[in-house]
Write a structure and sequence with these properties.
This is ERAP1-like C-terminal domain-containing protein. The chain is an all-alpha fold. Helices cover 68% and strands 0% of the residues. The protein has one domain (2-95).
Length: 120
């Protein structure tokens, strides 16, 4: 999900954020508002309209806000039974070839780390 957000063109961030926020429940809205509070962008309200309206003022933090909101949606999809393969099928077509290669390399590294064991 985070890789997909990195690939979104700047002019499209607002609309994707609005879509992500529209599907959040009250708990996720509260979590997102708490993150906004850490940026000191005013007194955040766990309200969809407020969060969407304040989004442009986040500046460099807009992508991170979208990653958080999209991550909540991804967690909900997973809880609803959407398989990882389905998620990948939805996201991969929007990624550049270079980004897909980077993700594949990261996946192999994580797999090896898990299978070979680590100090953690």
């Amino acid at each position: 999900m985070r890789a997909w957000v990195d690939e979104i063109p700047e002019p499209d961030l607002d609309s994707h954020y609005a879509k992500a926020v529209a599907d959040l429940d009250e708990h996720d809205l509260s979590m997102l508002a708490a993150w906004h509070a850490s940026l000191e962008v005013g007194h955040p309200i766990a309200n969809k309209e407020f969060l969407v309206n304040v989004f442009p003022s986040l500046g460099e933090n807009r992508r991170e806000a979208l990653k958080i909101a999209a991550g909540f949606r991804g967690e909900e999809a997973f809880d609803a039974g959407v398989a990882e393969e389905q998620s990948l099928e939805m996201v991969l077509p929007f990624l550049s070839e270079q980004r897909c290669r980077e993700l594949a390399q990261e996946c192999v590294e994580l797999y090896c780390w898990d299978r070979l064991g680590s100090e953690n």
